[in-house]
Amino acid sequence: MSPVSAVPTDPTPPISPPISMPISMPARLLMGPGPITVDPRVLHAAATQMVGQFDPAMTAAMTEVMALYRTVFATENEQTFLVDGTSRAGIEAALVSLIEPGDDVLVVVFGRFGQLLVEIAGRCGARVHTVEVPWGEVVPVELVEEACRRVRPRLIAVVQGDTSTTMCQPLADLGELAHRYQALLYVDATASIGGNPFETDAWGIDVATAGLQKCLGGPSGSAPITLSPAAVAAIERRKRVEAGIRTADDDSAPPAGTPIASNYLDLAQIIDYWGPRRLNHHTEATTMLYAAREAARLLVAETLPAAIDRHRRHGEAMLAGVRGLGLGVFGDVAHKMTNVVAVEIPETLGSTGGDRVRAAMLTCFGIEIGTSFGPLAGRVWRIGTMGYNARQDAVLLTLAALEQVLRAEGVPVSAGGGVAAASEVYAG
Amino acid sequence: MSPVSAVPTDPTPPISPPISMPISMPARLLMGPGPITVDPRVLHAAATQMVGQFDPAMTAAMTEVMALYRTVFATENEQTFLVDGTSRAGIEAALVSLIEPGDDVLVVVFGRFGQLLVEIAGRCGARVHTVEVPWGEVVPVELVEEACRRVRPRLIAVVQGDTSTTMCQPLADLGELAHRYQALLYVDATASIGGNPFETDAWGIDVATAGLQKCLGGPSGSAPITLSPAAVAAIERRKRVEAGIRTADDDSAPPAGTPIASNYLDLAQIIDYWGPRRLNHHTEATTMLYAAREAARLLVAETLPAAIDRHRRHGEAMLAGVRGLGLGVFGDVAHKMTNVVAVEIPETLGSTGGDRVRAAMLTCFGIEIGTSFGPLAGRVWRIGTMGYNARQDAVLLTLAALEQVLRAEGVPVSAGGGVAAASEVYAG
Q1: Least CB-CB distance to B46: which of A47, A51, A85?
Q2: B226 touches B69 (CB < 8 A)
């Protein structure tokens, strides 16, 4: 007999014990810039069993989702549905379907997510032009108009709320401006919608996309989108139904523009999947559709104005609270989103102190807060109050824990100052 | 006072009552070609609460998912992870990341999903060449080799199991063939993996993608993918980290190939999101990651050989059962996938009879079966036995219900012949 070896010789070792267990996640209160703790009712909906892709119950649920997101987006746009991917998939679906190679596109940039629009528009073949302001500011409409005069863009693309800086770009005048210059207006409303006023139709927005993981209180992985009739017309003229299901009718109407470069994110075909033609495209991500439906249903039941008020109230409480702890706040606070605040990391903490505080918040108190990107990495903490976590207990717990962690780090904080200042907002 | 009007004048009518209710779906037994009924344990996992995107518990779960899918794909490929979208997103991620515009790509076509690869490769800018056989057959390796000699493709793309025809393409020789001609081999294993032998490494497959909604018993919306070192090298040379998070180091290594046209489906960046760099890209679709983890965990616990045997057994029972009812089976049955059968719709039913039978199965018995695409639309029913529904009770219930529906339609069926024939398979 060969001796017993301590070294495993099996080339494919068995899966280690943790993987043999069902998923089990630690309890966390997610108070960063998103994703945030999901409303348990949304999780419950996500666990609903499947029906078939073209089951009457499924197509009815799809139609309900369209109606619900019309209310969320404040629009009467028929073409309002979900893109099956994260909010970034929604952005790319909009841009790759709208932008033809060589198009002039004007991107309004005031943070990392504006830069992302630059990036994606560039990959779509656009000639990208930007108007930019320093991080912490929003862009004056005059700058956008000046650029329109110069560039004559086919599309203006802008983020409403850029979580990297917490700024919320005023949009009310941009639709009219865009249309005066024969441009379409695209808005990424992922971080803001549901917690800040957003008016697709009243503001003349042609395409808006979102995600569930911010003020909508859902998980990442589904991207609601709405398209104005003008945007639909621009996209439909590029439509080419895919090989394998193209009919003679389709062949008789070849695309008038450059065909859309993506198949998965081809809005022309996705419109036909959600519409009466029920064109076979992807297999709908039903679990995420259930989640998206419930997130919107809860928001619509609460009403948008009430939800926005809720975000405003808890955002103000958090803002007062961090100031009550003696901390500074980054950026033009008058233009801050309701649902996130950028807190200046005290310089006394040193270059790694911001991360130490975040780690202590997570490890000792189970609370997640974020930092930011680029010039703000390690300079600010981003603290969110959104979706399911736009709640008094979540705000006060976060402030109470932050006070303890800062004190342990030697930062001078007023005892109880954060909770007291937030409570005053709630009392007022 | 104005008279009460029966016509609502509110331009934004309230949401109709059904939408004010949580989702409630009818009980269905999904015996079509997929999506299929999801294992309740997977639904339960999907309902797990969020943790943060870079929480140690989250990155640990991502690492577990990578290990689990290495077992599912039978590979040691480090780069094995999830694309956040449906199986089609996985296909496009693979093709848009591998194919540079102008590349010669050879697509092996034996059904609708081979045509989809043609479509997507074309949108990626490939010069697409095909080898095709009639629907119901698989492609002889000699034909592929002959095309390689002629075309000298950079990439060969093929579906393993094309549900449109139920055929399962033999792949064991294609990796060696591809590499002999300096091509990479891509396989779409969505419909087959977990229920049919699939050997990424042993068969020399460079990139394989899948979905959860077939033999893995999960919901649509997450696309597992695996990449060989050669495929990773081909993709990495095209890497361009996006604006907003690009560093000086990134700038010092500009892409050597054409940059990848998609941002969302850019595997070079997604690799860095799943890898040690933890590059910020999309926000992981955590709900779907939980589902993907559980689907793979259950499969790995069962073991792949046992799961494949299970699919083979229940597939044989269903095949025997439909023949026992006196129905014909479409295509080269020796090359059929284990998990789906294409049943010829009796001509006596007339042109709409196939749909009538499917509607009666769904309405009266709650059982979904499918039809097919293109030349097989209305000519066959596709009946699946896969994932959670590769079970004796599901097979026997389907056969019992089908017998009743066919009899009511006047089709001559042998009383009990379907269940008896299937039972014989189970007894043997």
Answers
A1: A47
A2: yes
**Does the distance separating the beta carbons of A51 and B30 come in below 8 Å?**
yes
A383 has which bridge partners? A341
Q: Is the separation of the CB atoms in B142 and B119 below 8 Å?
A: no
Decide if A243 and B61 are in contact by the 8 Å CB cutoff: no
Mean pLDDT over residues A363-369, rounded?
98
**What is the rounded CA–CA span in Å between residue B339 and residue B162?**
11
Rounded Cα–Cα distance for residues A420 and A416 (Å): 6
| Percent of chain A topping pLDDT 90 | 90
Q: What is the mean pLDDT of residues B208-229?
A: 98
**B170 cis-preceded (ω within 30 degrees of 0):** no
Altogether, the residues listed in chain B come to a count of 428
CB contact under 8 A, B245 and A112: yes
Cis amide linkage into residue B35, ω under 30° from 0: yes
Q: β-strands A104-109, A155-159: how paired?
A: parallel
* pLDDT, chain B, mean: 94
Q: Where are the alpha helices (DSSP H) in A128-282?
A: 141-151, 174-180, 229-236, 248-251, 267-274
pTM: 0.95
Element containing residue A122 per DSSP (H, E): helix A112-123
User: How far are the Cα atoms of B84, B189, B274 from residue B271, in angstroms, in the given order?
Assistant: 13, 20, 5
- Could you tell me which chain A residue has the CA closest to the CA of B93? A264
Confidence of residue B251 (pLDDT cuts 50, 70, 90): confident
pLDDT (mean) for B285-308: 97
From chain A, pick out residues whose CB is under 8 angstroms from the CB of B281: 88
Q: Is A387 helix (H, G, I), strand (E, B) or coil?
A: helix
Q: What would the pLDDT profile of A146-205 be if each residue is shown by its tens digit?
A: 999 999 999 999 999 999 999 999 999 999 999 999 999 999 999 999 999 999 999 999
| Region for A303 from its dihedrals, namely left if φ exceeds 0, alpha if ψ lies in -120 to 50, beta otherwise | left
Instruction: State whether B287 and A286 contact (CB < 8 Å).
Output: no
Is the model's pLDDT at A5 over the cut of 90?
no
Cβ distance A288 to B293 less than 8 Å, yes or no, reads no
In chain A, count H helices and then E strands. Answer: 14, 13
Q: What is the pLDDT of residue B198?
A: 98
- The closest CB to that of B50, out of A24, A68, A219, belongs to A219
Closest to A264 measured CA to CA, from A247, A281, A245: A281
CB contact at 8 A, A141 and A174: yes
CB B168 within 8 A of CB B192: yes
